[in-house]
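To whoever picks this up:

The parser on our side crashed when reading a file containing two proteins. I've narrowed it down to the boundary between the first structure block and the second sequence. Both blocks are reproduced below exactly, byte for byte. First block:
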Amino acid sequence: MPAPAHTIVMTGATRGIGFEAARELLRRDADAHLVVLARAASAAPVAPRLREVSPHVSAIDVDLASTASVNAAAAQVEDLLDAGGLPPLRGVVCNAGVHLDSALHTTVDGYETTFAVNVLATHLLLRRLHPHLRSAPARIVVTVSDAHFGDLRHTGGTFPSTAWTTPDTLFRPGAYPRPGTVRAGRRAYATSKLGGIHLVHEWARRLPSGVDIVAYNPSLVIGTGLARDAGGASDFLMRRVVPALVLTPLVDTPPVAGRRLADVVLGDTAAATGSYVHRARVAASSKESYDAEREEALWTWLERAAQG
């Protein structure tokens, strides 16, 4: 098999949508070397399965809830790129995310875990890796969620409305009313996904021509495992109730959603930089998600956090 011509770095590739997307990327892009950023224990059983599709797979240990770990993993990717141990970087896929049972979980850095993993870790990876995106056309994809709408139409009432305030508040444990409740955990998740879209918009303004960034919303997908730590009835609903809808247009399976994610990463789904892709097409995200002043404030906070 010929040596790979370019690298794709991916988080959230060890289960659900991400695993299916990783397999699809390797199957359809024979020139790609896939670097999986994940906890070593999660990557160990998955890497051999991905190598059944292509031998060009490597894994780097990372804890996305630790800024030091994220920076160390990104630095390892940089060193490999600079030394020629990896081919030129063409894609970064930020697919990992957490949905927790309260808004009180705290990282080693003192941040609220949902926001730390879903927003800060994404920014830390991109600020280290984006200068290496030289193999045009390059694309960054950030997985978001229609939970950020927080309304009946988009979430079926399973998520409360978002509660954006300031980054200083949102990254602090206990930012929401009754922070120890499952509802607060859901609000933190929905609000963090709104933050992910804000982040995509701001990065789109700052990235050079030839490097696009796109938000991908898989919508409702069964079997991802995302709700396993969400508490309350979330896990039961995703395991027992939602699968009954799989034969309707409302729900996708991980293979379908993974294929659609791969479509976005590979550019088979046409989407201008800064776009929001809902399942298989470009759409509008929530009205609240378009706020340049808020996006700049988030960027400023994230840069301050990144610099210690």
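<<boundary where parser fails>>
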Amino acid sequence: MFTDPKIVNLHDLSQRAYITFYYSGKRYRFYNGKAIGINCMPNNCDTLAARERLLKQLVRGYIKALLSGWTPEEVKTPVQKQPLIQLLNQVAQDIEGGSYSSVYRRDILKVVESFSDFLVAEDRKGALPDEIVTADIERFLKRFSSSGTYYQNKRRTLGAVFSRLLKQGYCKTNPVLETTKRRAKAVLHQAYTPEQLAPVLQYLKENFPHLYLCALLMYGTLLRPHREIRLLKRKHFDEHFTCFSLDGKENKSGRIRSLPIPDFVRQELVERCIGDLLPDENIFTRCLEPFNECYFNTMWSRAKTKMLDLGLLQPKQTLYSFRHAASVNVFTRTQNLKLLQQLLGHSNLNTSLIYLRSIGAIQVESSMMPEL
């Protein structure tokens, strides 16, 4: 009925610490022991060590109260009115301390910083959450009007921030929901033809060896380059490199993923002596630390310029085109959309269909139409 209370201590005496837990699916947060009748005030401490000690005491007190039948629903503490800019700072701290993806964390922190600067520029540092209206959000979003995709990304991220504040009771509505939407134009990752694939891979092998291995893994295993391939370690492969396994935290789908490895990928891994690495060593850097998130993007930008000059690829062909080419290859040979969905690691079949529709892989013939 309730989760174990957890301590949220930011190790900064200027920021309040608290304990948090869920009761009947609802999240509760307590800064002291008043609700259960104990004198425990962690945020009055002068040192971090003393505050940590009282926070642990506070956790024990709330666990004992919960087991004795006390419910947080009995506590009717009004939400304190705090300036929005202060609440935005709290959201940023919660996101930094949470188990979120690096991309989500980056986007939230950037939009929080930008919106805080916006409030300062408009001389509204003391504005309360409910004082922000849709017109204010519209003015802020105009800063990101260079493209529909850029605008929608900022709109969606800011909406997530206000949604958190709404759930915590700091505002009554989400002002972002009524703002203008813009059409985001999808980027077409044109798949490589079989004739193009070999020359492109050969060029990468000779000039960009790390990018070559990344492309080979994308095509052979359909893994994603930045969140999955870049972070691959020796332990993700079996002894003879015949299959790989990723747990839910190591791939975008959030589910355990285990697939066989084609011979052409296995041969490259063996030639690179990946088997000599320690279990936690990265297969690209050959040490514990992986390349940074932008590494493959940077390498691809350099390689693409040169390959375009050589006529090896088309302008709309990208690093992700290796994954699209693999999707076309699998579907052409199997005609099995469910299998393709599993290989791509998609939770929604419609997402897998986009890989085929965008490149015209699904061809409908008259013999496929219904018969009476």
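After patching the parser it read the second block fine. The chain has a mean pLDDT of 87. The first strand starts at residue 6 and ends at 8.
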